[in-house]
Write a structure and sequence with these properties.
- The complex is a heterodimer.
- Chain A is mostly helical.
- Chain A is about 65% helix and about 0% strand.
- Chain A is built from 10 helices and no strands.
- By secondary structure, chain B is an all-alpha fold.
- Chain B contains 9 helices and no strands.
- In chain B, α2 crosses α4 and α6 packs across α9.
- Classes of the chains: A mainly alpha, B mainly alpha.
- The interface between A and B is large, with 36 and 45 residues.
Amino acid sequence: MTDHQSPADDQAQQLLEHYRQQHDHQPSAAMDARILAAASAMVKKHESQPLLIRVQQWLLGGSTGRWSIALGSLAVVGLAVGLVFNTMQPTPSTYDSPHPVAAAPALQRYAEPQADSAPLQRKRMESAPAASVIAEMAEAPQPVIEATVEDKSLAKMAPSADAIFDELLPQLKQVIELREAGETEQAEEQVKGLKARYPGVDIEQQLHALTVQDK
Amino acid sequence: MVTESKTIDDGALLRRYRQGDSDAFAQLYERHRLGLFRFLCGLCGDATVAEEIFQETWLSVVRSETVQREAVLFKTWLYQIARNRLIDHWRKQGKRASLQEEYDEQLHGLEDTTPGPEQRLHLSQDKQRLQHALDELPEEQREVFLLRAHADLELHEIAELTRTPAETVKSRLRYAMQKLRRLLVDSAAEEVSI
């Protein structure tokens, strides 16, 4: 065995062997017992772990560091994507109206500044759906007025000019007809009522615009 | 070849232990306990410290979730843990050894007056002298020598464990051998060696 070794290697080997033989320290029996007991205790501890954790450790081969970071990052990315899609839902067209076309009091719909209403009137002249809204207002005028007076903050909400016009149009026409029929007093009573219900609308201007258009 | 199969067995034993086999750990422990303990005793020269580090090292193995990766041998990993624990201990004690090797390097330029390689060495068997000779070595050389002697690690394995170039490890071992020969042979001149 030593034929291929140089004398220097032989001496080195001799020195190593010498130390191995002379260095006869060894750990105490108590030390051995403590370490072996700790090893057994760890085995028992793992056996009492939930099956899921043991399966995870088996799958990951004990090295959870890198994979747990990767899986955690993936979970965060998935959550972020989910949040993004959840927040991309379209907002309702009206702020406080759960059923935009439902039979809700029209008090929630206030016109934008009057300058917009004249051109819109031309578009909505033939509007049929507005009749249902107007009919609703005709049936319960008092509650609408009360709500209008009590909750001024609703005036600041974004009303639909088209919806307001749809409500007003038949009533404005009625006023015009009354005036043309000479029923001035009755016409003025209606105008007064409209002004109270739609404080943000210039009723006279709307009537004038309708009158001019008809001509 | 024998070493290879033993290495593979270490990894298999560790895996079996991680899967709940306490006997596998007992085999691993029996296989490496003496080498590790003697390494620590030789390196720190204090049996109390050696016991403390020895226990901490094995408990780290017990508590670790690591299974042996192909690139890292169990024995290398074990001695790496022990080495790190000892370094931490020395840091707490404020021990510094970085200058020793520099100084001792100068001695290596001196003529080697030990008997020629063709002569068989008569080495002292006095345990105190043996430990004293080890203590005379710079820490890095002592570590390399003890890893070679008690852990039976090859030079490239020592290089990996200590994160030192292989050539540096080779030099350190050579210097350690020269100095130990010089110290032990000198001592043996005063004794009757067997």
